[in-house]
Amino acid sequence: GKLVGRFYDENGAPTEALRQAEAAIEEALKFKAESEQRKQQFPPCNSEWSSAKGSRFWCSRQSGGVSRDWTGVPRKLYVPGSRGSHCVCVRTTGPPWGQPDSTEHRDRGDLDNPHLEQYDGCHPLAEQCVLT
User: Fold this and answer.
1) I need a surface site. Which of 14, 80, 100, 124 has the fewest CB within 10 A?
2) Region 69-73: what's the mean pLDDT?
3) What is the maximum span of the chain, computed from C-alpha positions, in angstroms?
4) E strands, the chain, where?
């Protein structure tokens, strides 16, 4: 049986509200899948802050809870549609993400991704960065 009201009319047919709710759920699932894929491509950095030393960001093969066979270097990631940036670990060798069989690449991993920015005052290939 179906309850007549917001989601079903008196004939048991779906209402516009149900269609909108289903579309919102589908959009949320798509966003979650994209977010998980982005976390595999760009795992979050490890980070710590102290008043004496400032901020330190670093990458390891486990940072962000993502196990992988590369360490990466810290970069600021700007996600389209979001405000600000956050620290991620970026692969520095091989083809870019999503192009595993590509032979037409510069062996720079994802360093050339347009949504990334290097931290000022940090060596471009340093696995850790300290900002005071």
Assistant:
1) 80
2) 94
3) 69
4) 46-50, 54-58, 73-77, 86-90, 116-117, 128-131
